């Protein structure tokens, strides 16, 4: 029985979220396991997320933006205020949403590409993801809300 349960768990979580947890912070690694005991956080159950993001083609540029977030808030354990994240998105993001402070509004599961969706739905409200790569480039996400 132990052999049967391990491959199922590894297959379910190892492919989609393993990359994100490995490329993100330790916080994201634990957040990605919404089903494993914390139903109250809504990570595994919500169907909509409200988010802002920064998108850069080059890893160096997204790392520079993330360093500003680290220096200003994250290194102190603080949450990045949405208005401050919006300023950085306007400055750094190469996505058309950058002109709106990176605001993506509310979006359902299934609308965004794999890695982006995985990180957006695994990030707690008010938290900022570590930089990660998708098919469109490098991102940082700020989760502003979640609902069913």
Helix content: 40-55%
Count up the helices: 6
Mean pLDDT: 78
Radius of gyration based on Cα positions = 15 Å
Give a topology summary.
Elements: H1 2-14, H2 16-23, H3 26-31, E1 48-56, H4 59-72, H5 82-92, E2 103-108, H6 114-122, E3 132-134, E4 137-147
Antiparallel strand pairs: 1-2, 1-4, 3-4
Helix pairs in contact: 2-6, 4-5
Characteristics:
four-stranded antiparallel β-sheet; 41% helix; alpha+beta; disordered N terminus; 148 residues
Describe the structure.
A 4-stranded antiparallel sheet has the order 2-1-4-3, sandwiched between helices. With about 150 residues, it is α+β, with helices and mostly antiparallel strands. The chain contains 6 helices and 4 strands; from the N terminus they run H-H-H-E-H-H-E-H-E-E. Strand 3 and strand 4 form a beta hairpin. The N terminus is likely disordered. Helix 2 crosses helix 6 and helix 4 runs antiparallel to helix 5.
Task: Provide a concise account of the structure shown.
Helix 2 (16-23) crosses helix 6 (114-122) and helix 4 packs antiparallel against helix 5. The chain is an alpha+beta fold. It has helices at residues 2-14, 16-23, 26-31, 59-72, 82-92, 114-122, and strands spanning 48-56, 103-108, 132-134, 137-147.
